[in-house]
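User: Okay, second chain of the day. Same drill as before: sequence in, C-alpha cells out.
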Amino acid sequence: MSDTTIKLDVWLPEVCHIAYEAGQLISKYYHQLEDVDIEHKADGSPVTEADHAADDFICKALSKLTPNIPLVTEESVGKIPFEDRQAWSTYWLVDPLDGTKEFIAKTDEYSVNIALIHDHKPVLGVVYGTELGNLYFAYQSLDAAVNNRVGKIEGLVPSSINLELEWQLMLHDAKPISVAKIPIQHNGEGEAFKVAVSRRHGGALQRFMGQLGHSTTVKMGSALKTCLVAEGQADVYPRFGPTSLWDTAAAQCILEVAGGGVLNAAGHPLEYIQTESLLNPFFIAVSDTDYPWPKFPEIF
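Assistant: Same drill. C-alpha cells below.
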C-alpha cells in the first residue's frame, strides 16, 4: 500500500474538487424548472439524466487524475465484465448521485460519493451533500473532517488564480469531526440513542430500535446518514435493506477515521470484494464498534 498512501494526500484535494463540481452539475438539474428525465433500471430503482451527467463527469476526471487506477461506478459497472474487475486490488468506487429518490422528491438529501478501495478496504472517502453544503472527507492517515462552507463558496472556476491552492487551503480550514460517546442508560431510561434513518424504512428497523432501548430518530437520506454518525449527530445507522458497495464505501472511510465503523451481522467491518452483484449484506454504521449492539440478520 506504500505507493497509494504516499499519494492520498495529493489526491484528496483533487477528489474533493471533482465531487464538488459533480455536485454543482447535479444541482443545476435539481433546480431547473422542467422535470428531469427519469428511467428505471431492471431492479426498479430510478435513474435520472443528472445521474448520467455526473457519472460521465466523474469518470473522465478520475481517469485523468489517476489513469492507471480503474474505476467502478453505479451507472457504468454494467460495461465492465466481472472477469476484468475481480482481480483489481486498487480501484475507485463511485456513486455519482446517491439518493436518487431524495433527488426526485426534492428533500435536499442526496450526495456524491467517491471512494478509493485498496486491498478490499476504503482508504479515501469523499461525500458531498450538495444542497446541504456539507463536504465530508477522510483518508486513513488523516483525521476525518467536514467543511460546511463548500456549498456556499462562489466563483470556484478554472480561471481562479490557483484553484489547487484554494482547495488545499479550504481543506486545511475544515474542522475535524469525531463520533459521539455512547449514551448512558439504566433500565431503558436516560439519554436516548440517536438513530439515523431514511424516510423509507420497515419493520426490521423498528425491532432493532425496540431492542436498543430509549431512542429517537434523525431522518436523512443517502450516505449522509453514516456521516451523521461520523460527526456525532447520531449514534447508529441501521441499514436492513438492499445497498451496493458504492453506497457505503466513501462514508465508511470517513466514519472509521472519525472513530466508528460499519459492521455486518457478525460484527466485522464491511469489505469491498469484487463480486458479480456488488451487493452489501445488512449493516449498522456505529459510533462505537465495541458496544453490544442488538443482533440483526445478515440478509432477508
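The chain has two domains: 2-176, 185-286.

User: Thanks, on to the next one.
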